[in-house]
Amino acid sequence: MAEPAEDVALSLSELFDLARRALVLHGVSAAHAEAIARVITQGQRDECHSHGLYRLLGCVRSVRSGKVDPRAEPTVRDVSPGVLAVDAHYGFSLLAFETGLPRLAEKARTQGIAAMAINRCFHFSALWPEVETIAAQGLVGLAMNPSHSWVAPAGGTRGVFGTNPIAFAWPRAQGHPFVFDFATSAIARGDIELHAREGKPIPPHWAIDRDGQPTTDARAALDGAMQTFGGHKGSALAAMVELLAGALIGDLTSMESQAFDDGAGASPCHGELVIAIDPQRFLGSDHAAGQARAESLFDAIVDQGARLPSQRRFEARERCMTR
Ligand code: NDP
Ligand code: PYC
Question: How much is the pTM?
């Protein structure tokens, strides 16, 4: 049998179609399959390999586990003038996000700030596509969610927190928004999985093994516990995510999500908190001054040779779109 090719070149539309068709073949509804394929394609386009096409495997595994309802239809409930809740009914999170977004934006424009709780969703994706979509509407976006309890608290040795990403986007008058999106663990678990698949060592500060010792062995790391980024600071932020996107919105913490999975190997099932803020509402006639202040801040970063978060991603996108 011939050796598999190292690289396969697909156009973005071929990639989208491959992902969509694979999902539909596994019983995923067209609406979910398209929402998932869109985000997987965006991840691959922006060279976010831990959350690009690789995630298709996890989606299919999740469906096969029987835990996910691949045809669930999200429902939206108004909780208060500034809060809405979207019940994913144990489907994937992305369609729930898309379903609730118009109402979230509407509330943010009316109230100045609004929050959307997404509940009972299977979650596998990067958060930057979501906050970027919010920023594209002229709103500031903030999103976070727990995952599975793979990450030890600073000073501990056993997993308590999820990899708990926090993503933020600030809309700018010209060009891309200011966006960051990172796990509160030293690295996303997906990256350690990719190192394990490729037999590559990992830096020693990413994880500890089962005996609580720092390890460079990706498989031992997956068997042990991951570390938070920035020691006690990342640990506190990870706890905040558990509280805001778990306890506060009536949904599972990462420990509970792991217990709910019960060894099935599905994507984590929990909630997500998404916040949208309307700068126009906050600033009124001072909106332009607020924007100018933000631009001075960004200039002060890049003028000294530092880069803005997401610049690598936007450059990868540019390369991909002009290929
Ligand atoms: P990275 O550490 O790769 O990147 C984190 C952020 O920092 C990015 O916005 C990145 O921008 C930016 N950045 C990196 N280097 C620099 C630099 N030198 N100067 C300025 N900014 C920089 O991300 P993680 O491994 O922590 O997370 C990867 C993805 O995993 C995220 O998208 C996250 O949402 C996802 N994830 C999802 C989870 C889930 O439960 N759904 C759980 C955990 C993670 P750039 O991309 O341009 O390099
Ligand atoms: O890479 O840590 C991760 C992750 C968890 C859920 C989705 N991605």
Answer: 0.97
